[in-house]
Amino acid sequence: MGDKAQGRKILVVAELRGETIHPVTFELLGKSREIVEHTGGEVYSVVFGSSIDKAKASELIHYGADRVFLFKDPVFSVLNPMLYAYNLVKLCREEKPDIILMGATCFGRSLGPRVAAALKTGLTADCIDLRIDENGELIQVRPAFVGNILAHIKTKTKPVMSTVRYRVMKAREKDESRSGLIIEKTAEKLFQDRIRLVGEAVPKRLNITDAEIIVAGGRGLGSAEGFKLLGELASLLGGVVGSSRPPVDDGWIRKEHQVGYSGSIVKPRLYIACGISGSPQHLFGMKDAETIVAINSDPSAPIFRVADYGIVGDLYQVIPLMIKEIKARRSSVG
Amino acid sequence: MEGLKTSLKTSVLLKQLLNIIVLVKQVPDIERVKFDVETGRIDRSSAPAEINPFDLNAIEAAVQIKEKMGGFITALSMGPMQAVSSLRDAVARGVDDAILLEDRRFAGADTLATSHTLAAAIRKIGSYDIILCGEKTVDGDTGQVGAEVAQLLEIPHIYYVSRIIRVSENSITVVSEAENASYTLESGFPVLLSVTRDVNKPRLPTLKSKMKAMKSEVKIWHAEDLSGFLDLDKAGYAGSPTWVQKVIVQKEKTRQCRIHRQVEDGLQELMRLLEAKGLV
Ligand SMILES: Cc1cc2nc3c(=O)[nH]c(=O)nc-3n(C[C@H](O)[C@H](O)[C@H](O)COP(=O)(O)OP(=O)(O)OC[C@H]3O[C@@H](n4cnc5c(N)ncnc54)[C@H](O)[C@@H]3O)c2cc1C
Ligand SMILES: Nc1ncnc2c1ncn2[C@@H]1O[C@H](COP(=O)(O)O)[C@@H](O)[C@H]1O
Predict the structure, then answer these.
(1) Which of A 115-134 lie inside 8 A of B, CB atoms?
(2) ipTM value of the model?
(3) Domain-embedded: residue A254
(4) Digit-coded pLDDT (tens) for B68-91
(5) Cα B198 from Cα A251, distance rounded (Å)
(6) Distance, in angstroms, between A121 CA and closest chain B CA?
């Protein structure tokens, strides 16, 4: 309780992807504001980049930060976790945040543990909720055992650190009238030669995490050919193609399309699962879709339990009919 | 720092002989395991134990590097005595030596306490060029232990390694995945690599290698064996900053599925859905 009166300092570690701040950062800022409105305190943010300027950094203020620490230096063009961690740890020792939040993305999951180990504190992975309990302590909620259980984790040490899953918390509306402080920091350039980038980064063609419409196929497709059909439906609907694991393992489709426990977690407006049984590992990645449609020839397939609409049938019959029907309607309207 | 120097020295002296450590955890078969809702712990007796599936890729990566460069692979695990069987499995899959860190005082560890214990054992092993670990464990599911170990050893790490492109006697080049791009990265030794399932297809052990492994000796190190390397206050339950306050068993989130066995009917309903979503 005494703690509560002193308020909280929450530090959100911003993630840059190229020139843009990744939206998970804004979601964390939104959650942080909610917490400090309850407990008192301030929201800090820190951003590392080779070309990030003050104008860009001020977006962090518009989304909820009171104070932004800006590390601008060419050394940050390579994601060298040792170098990032060194600078972040140094900042934490100076500013002494109570809570440190990062996205549970490749960036956060690689950097977070180094910082936690250096600060000798606990880190809770992949949280889907953060709450303050009646004692003013942070409860970190995370799924475990392939989503079968939710664990409430507490941390005895300070700062409390968590990585938080993308698209589970709400960003606030951007407010350009919000004011705050941007503090430029000088980077300590250590460990530069430990990790070297060879050649250029190869951008990925698909961003399935943000897709609004996904037409996904599983082992039931029978062959790589099936994805051409799904691709046709997906592009008619302005969506992308997803996959369960077996097609990826068999080389029918690239890993980037995989949804689930060892693939991507998605949250589209519409998820059409074709020839997918609905294993816990697959459901882990898509069960929060707004609407789920299942097309499966086995009426007892578990996917029907989580779907909103289901067709018991052969996808090679149903999908071409769907494509035909959509085309027919469009041409009659157009 | 001492460990760093020794390992640089050894790799220079024994050109092309790399010292590789693989971190391997024994986990319950996640498909079958049950949880105790009261304590929030898993009931390990309810399912057979196996090597964490992601760690099989780390073992295979180590074996492939050894096949190219020559070297010596040590599998290192922290866990109860039963984990000896998983370490024998690792031997059957090609590791040369296996060490189990077993002690009541190591039990109940979260990722930080686990990492302190593993890092202490690695310091005791002394010379290492490459440490390999899996992307995550299916029971802990954090993917944190690798990078924490690297930090405690003050060595670099590369996560989400999907491909090993080249190994030389003093550096390794790999592809590391992020959501939006793949990066080709190079590091000197020592380095810790966390590999994804894409890095290789683990081979199955042969009958002959299984037989040989059955007779292999797994070294058991207790707390005393790590004295001078491990501060016991940092190990096990006592050394774990995080604790599970409560566990809630998720009810399966089912939806009222409108199932159509008549394809025509189903199609009509789907078209209405697409219309409602503004898609047609
Ligand atoms: C849902 C959930 C989420 C969690 N999230 C995080 C998180 O984000 N961050 C974090 O730091 N922690 C977290 N924890 C705690 C952390 O994951 C634990 O490290 C993990 O649960 C380990 O538990 P276990 O099931 O492997 O261990 P247990 O079931 O407690 O037992 C297995 C472990 O105990 C040890 N052990 C048992 N007997 C012995 C023995 N005789 N000798 C030596 N060792 C022994 C072994 O080390 C073995 O790894 C979480 C825990 C849960 C349940
Ligand atoms: N108890 C352990 N013993 C040995 N290696 C471990 C242990 N726990 C985790 N690891 C390694 O660290 C990786 C990530 O584990 P985790 O952070 O638990 O998801 C695993 O894939 C293993 O390679």
Answers:
(1) 115-118, 120-126
(2) 0.86
(3) yes
(4) 999 999 999 999 999 999 999 999
(5) 11
(6) 6
